[in-house]
Structures are given as structure tokens and as C-alpha cells.
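Hypothesis: this fold can be encoded by more than one sequence.
Test: take the C-alpha cells below, design a sequence, compare later.
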């Protein structure tokens, strides 16, 4: 409540003693014409008080509740009011005696305490919502009762009006032993990468890590080492093992940056379901990768494509008879802003296995048989699996990460023959000599295994023009 206090002695000038006050009368003239008269000696102070803002109401809805997540939506009756909303476990809500005001104001105060250089208005601008708002909350404990709340907050960081609340319960978690993991990575450099994990059951907690292939002690030994480390952390920090597990494990899909790796070194990304005691609750999934021997450029290309049944083209026009029984692929290349040059190739079969088809050897084969700096390119392929390969280099001659895009050419996905030729014609590939090969690739040309390069070159399909 906002108050402006004005002492009577500051209002009634010239009045200096109680005896003189007794002889004075305080009159208040109202806008409706009435006059209020009070003996001045009976007045202690005058308070000018603003009315508290009208209390808005909030319509709270939740949906898509799983064992570890929920979707929240808040609709305030006043779209201009600022408010805060969140969820809290029923246990914590009861410990706070159901006082939403104290929960919100305590949260705001904790931010100001942790970030003393941040002004109150900055905190409110970040923390508060205005108008209808919705959000997904994740990594929740399963089979747990939550209170979903919302309350208006003034410019002074204080709550006003009535809080709105509703409750929901997360679902029970699945069986950890049945959970499988899809592992991948991106942004690979000589010392870091982004680890991506997709569990089959988002309710299952799991551990994910990266470890060198050299000296790998085996799945069970690694699991035992992790459990021991969790127990030591719990003991050293005065926490329960269960609390540490919640702090260091994951639920649902996640991506994170792993750094501090060694260049040109093979590693495993590994993941497995973890119980509350820190022990493995399922089998381990691993993915092997090797860090680069130098840092990649951010130069890259993206691809789009469509394909035609060569037999249909041959039936439509005799000049395309040579495509009968084949697949005719039209590809469009979009280079990034920092891509100075790029190489495109289409290979038969699946070349996404980085161990069987290492990046350096694959790039070298592309430099000998790929198409350079094309914006569009046509390929003649066979039905079945194939892999688009592309990489770019920046103005300094440093190449980016190799793009491997696996595709499967099937009759069900063909574009009608009537659409053939309606896209931009393929641009002529510039001579290979003009392409500025990265310094590292130039140095390593003589050391790459010839057999591997030959095998890769045989898989690369020639780019052709339409006419």
C-alpha cells in the first residue's frame, strides 16, 4: 500500500505549541461542497493514501502432463497487469503455509541479493509476465503433486490482490531398464563438441558422459566409478545420494557442451538409466567419435533436393531415354554467408558412419570427384540408399564440418515428370584448381590412405547437366 505521510506541523505553518494548536481548527474542503472541521489539537498527522490497485483474476490451465513435464497457461483478467507464475511442489507450498505472496517476494529478493548490480525494474522486467502467457516446465520429479500459482506484482516488487492456484500431479515414471538412448553430436572441434541425447522414455533419469576410448575399462567398471563418485560427492557436501543424483542426472531430451578434450583423439559418448542410489538401472549405450586435429570453420552449406523416376522421364521425352531405370536427382545448395567455396557430392550407399568413412579421407575424395561452387546440381543415381556430402571453406581456406545427409530414393517419393526442368538450371562447376583447399588438407594429401580414397571415389556419383 502506497502512503504519503505529511506531519501536521509541516502543514499548519506558524503553529508552534500545543496551547496555540488548541485554538486552531483544521478544515478540509471536499469537492462535493462539504466541509470537514476538526480541532487541530486532536490531529496527529495527515496521510494521503492511494487506493490499492484492483485485484486481477487469473485463469490457470495445465495440459500435456507427463512424468517429467507439463504445459502451463495463464490468462489474466487484465492484460496490462504484470504478474509472476510458477509451480512448486505441494510439500514446499505447505511449508510456506500456502503463502504465495511470500514465495514470490522471496524469489525476487533472492535475485536482487545474488545480483546486487541489477536494478529492481530490470529483475521485474525479466521475471514478470504481462498478458496471456504459457510455458513448458521440464525435468520435474515423477509422481509428484504440484501447485501452479499466479499473482499480480507491483512496480515495487510487492504482490497485491489475490493469488490464483490449482494443482496437478506428474505421472509415474516408466521402467528404467526398458529405456533406450539415441546419441548424436554436433559442433565438433579439436577440443569440444555438443552432446545430444534422446531417451525413449522422458520420465527416466539417466547419466551421460564422455570418456576416451584408450584405456576404456568396460561398461560395468565405468558405471561403478560413477556411482562411487556420486557417493563421495554426497558425503563431502552433506547431501543425500538421491539429492546428488537429481542434481547431476538428466530427464528427457538434452543437449550440452562437452569441452576440455584432446585433439585427434577417439572418445565415447555414453548414457544409461540411473536409479536414485546412483547405480545403473539399465544397459549402456555408446557412440564413438574422434576430435578433429584442428578447429573447423563455421562455413557450411545446406541442401534441398527432389528426384524423378528416370523411366517416366524417358517415356515423356526420347532425349531422356538414357535415364531409364535410374533416378534423376535435382539438388539446390545454399552456402552460409562466410562460405567462400564449397564442394558437393552424392554417394551411393550410406556413408554416415564416421569410423568407416573418416572425414578427412571423405573430403579428399570429394576434392577429386565432387562438384565445386555449384548452386544447383543434377545427379543420376540408383534406387535405394545414398548420401549427400558437402562441406565449405571460408576466405582463409579453413574448411567447415562435413555434411552427411543420408537419403533413400524410393518410387513413393518421386516428383511427377511434368515438373522436371522447371527449376533453375545447374550452374557450371568451376575447375578444381580454383578451389582453395584448406592448408591442413593440402599438407595431408600425401599421407591419406590411397585404398580408402579410391573406395570413396568409386562411390561418388558424377554430377551431370540436363542438356
Amino acid at each position: 500500500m502506497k502512503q504519503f505521510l505529511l506531519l501536521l506541523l509541516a502543514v499548519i505553518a506558524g503553529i508552534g505549541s500545543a496551547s496555540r494548536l488548541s485554538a486552531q481548527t483544521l478544515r478540509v474542503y471536499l469537492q462535493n461542497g462539504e466541509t470537514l472541521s476538526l480541532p487541530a489539537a486532536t490531529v496527529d498527522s495527515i496521510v494521503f493514501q492511494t487506493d490499492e490497485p484492483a485485484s486481477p483474476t487469473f485463469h490457470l490451465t495445465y495440459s500435456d502432463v507427463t512424468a517429467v513435464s507439463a504445459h502451463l497457461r495463464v490468462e489474466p483478467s487484465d492484460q496490462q497487469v504484470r504478474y509472476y507464475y510458477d509451480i512448486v511442489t505441494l510439500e514446499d507450498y505447505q511449508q510456506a503455509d500456502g503463502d504465495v505472496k511470500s514465495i514470490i517476494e522471496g524469489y525476487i529478493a533472492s535475485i536482487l541479493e545474488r545480483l546486487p548490480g541489477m536494478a529492481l525494474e530490470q529483475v521485474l522486467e525479466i521475471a514478470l509476465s504481462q498478458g496471456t502467457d504459457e510455458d513448458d516446465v521440464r525435468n520435474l520429479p515423477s509422481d509428484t503433486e504440484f501447485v501452479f500459482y499466479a499473482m499480480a506484482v507491483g512496480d515495487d516488487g510487492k504482490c497485491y490482490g489475490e493469488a490464483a492456484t490449482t494443482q496437478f500431479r506428474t505421472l509415474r515414471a516408466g521402467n528404467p531398464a526398458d529405456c533406450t538412448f539415441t546419441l548424436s553430436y554436433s559442433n565438433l572441434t579439436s577440443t569440444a563438441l555438443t552432446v545430444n541425447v534422446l531417451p525413449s522414455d522422458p520420465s527416466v533419469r539417466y547419466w551421460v558422459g564422455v570418456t576416451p576410448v584408450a584405456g576404456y575399462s568396460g561398461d560395468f567398471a565405468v558405471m561403478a566409478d560413477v556411482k562411487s563418485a556420486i557417493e563421495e560427492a554426497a558425503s563431502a557436501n552433506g547431501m543425500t545420494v538421491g539429492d546428488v543424483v537429481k542434481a547431476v542426472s538428466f530427464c528427457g531430451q538434452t543437449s550440452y557442451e562437452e569441452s576440455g578434450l584432446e585433439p585427434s583423439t577417439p572418445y565415447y559418448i555414453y548414457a544409461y538409466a540411473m536409479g536414485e542410489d546412483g547405480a545403473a538401472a539399465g544397459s549402456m549405450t555408446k557412440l564413438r567419435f574422434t576430435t578433429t586435429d584442428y578447429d573447423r570453420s563455421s562455413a557450411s552449406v545446406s541442401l534441398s533436393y527432389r528426384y524423378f523416376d528416370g523411366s517416366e522421364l524417358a517415356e515423356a521425352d526420347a532425349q531422356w531415354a538414357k535415364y531409364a531405370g535410374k533416378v534423376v536427382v535435382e539438388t539446390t545448395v545454399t552456402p552460409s554467408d562466410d562460405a567462400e567455396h564449397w564442394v558437393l557430392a552424392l554417394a551411393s550407399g550410406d556413408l554416415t558412419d564416421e569410423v568407416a568413412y573418416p572425414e578427412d579421407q571423405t573430403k579428399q575424395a570429394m576434392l577429386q570427384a565432387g562438384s565445386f561452387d555449384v548452386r544447383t546440381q543434377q545427379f543420376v543415381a540408383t534406387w535405394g540408399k545414398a548420401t549427400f556430402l558437402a562441406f565449405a571453406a571460408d576466405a582463409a581456406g579453413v574448411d567447415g564440418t562435413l555434411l552427411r545427409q543420408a537419403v533413400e530414393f524410393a518410387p513413393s517419393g518421386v516428383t511427377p515428370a511434368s515438373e522436371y526442368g522447371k527449376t533453375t538450371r545447374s550452374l557450371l562447376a568451376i575447375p578444381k584448381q580454383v578451389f582453395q583447399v584448406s592448408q591442413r588438407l593440402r599438407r595431408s594429401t600425401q599421407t591419406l590412405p590411397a585404398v580408402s580414397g579410391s573406395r570413396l571415389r568409386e562411390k561418388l556419383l558424377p554430377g551431370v547437366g540436363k542438356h
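Residues 3-49 form one domain. The chain has four domains: 3-49, 58-169, 181-290, 301-464.
Hypothesis status: open.
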